[in-house]
C-alpha cells in the first residue's frame, strides 16, 4: 500500500529534505509517516543502498535493526519509517548496543575489492589534500596500521538522528553511505556527532591509538574537502578545525 501511494507522487508530497545522497520525502498513510521516498542521484546509487541494507539486515540481533528497503524503481527508493525518537548522545546503554551491532556488521561477508585497503585509504587522503592544496600533509603512516584491521561493513553516517529508539528497540536508517570500509569508519562519525563516551561504548575493546588518530585525521580532511566542493561553509570550518586540533 505504501509503495502504491508513493511512487510517481513526489510532487504531491511537497518540499523534500535534501541530503548528500539525494532528496527524501515523508510518505504518510492516514496522516502518519509510514515511509520515506528517496530520489538518488542515479539508479546505481539506489541499487548500492539496497544491497547494503540487504547485507546489513544479517546483523540484526533482535535489539538493533536497519530500516527495510520496500521498493526500488530506477533511482527512486522507498524505505520503511523508523519509529521512535532519536537516540541521545549521553545514552550509554543505547551506544553499547549499537557497538555490539557494529561489531556484528564488521564480521559480515563483504564483496571482493580489487584495491587493497591501504592503497584505498592513501588514495582517499591524497585526493583530499590535493583538493585542499595541502602540500605539506603526506599520508599518515597510521593509515597502514588501520588497514591491517581489514574491511568490514559500516553504516558510515551513524549520527544520533539516524538512530531511532522505540519500545526498547533501536532502528538504524539512511544507509546511503553504507559500504565496507576501515575499522573506525563508524566511530569517526560518532565521535564528531556524539562524543568520546559514545565512541568508548562503540569500541569497548579499546582503540588502537595510531590507527584511530589516522582515521580521525582522514575523516577531518575528507569532511573539509567535501564541504569546500559543495560550498558548505559551516562544514568546511568544522573539518578544518578538527584537522588542526588533531595535529
List its salient traits:
247 residues, alpha+beta, 4-stranded mixed beta sheet
Summarize the structure.
With 247 residues, this protein is α+β, with helices and mostly antiparallel strands.
Q: Can you give a write-up of this model?
A:
With 247 residues, the chain is of the alpha+beta class. The chain has a single domain, classed as Aminoglycoside 3'-phosphotransferase, Chain: A, domain 2. The protein is 44% helix and 20% strand. The protein has helices at 2-6, 43-56, 92-107, 117-132, 142-147, 185-194, 196-202, 209-229, 233-246, and strands at residues 17-19, 22-29, 32-40, 64-66, 69-73, 76-80, 85-86, 152-154, 163-166, 169-172, 179-181. The protein has a five-stranded antiparallel β-sheet with strand order 1-2-3-6-5. Strands 4-10-9-7 form a four-stranded mixed β-sheet, with helices on one face. Strand 5 and strand 6 form a beta hairpin. The radius of gyration is 18 Å and the shape is globular.
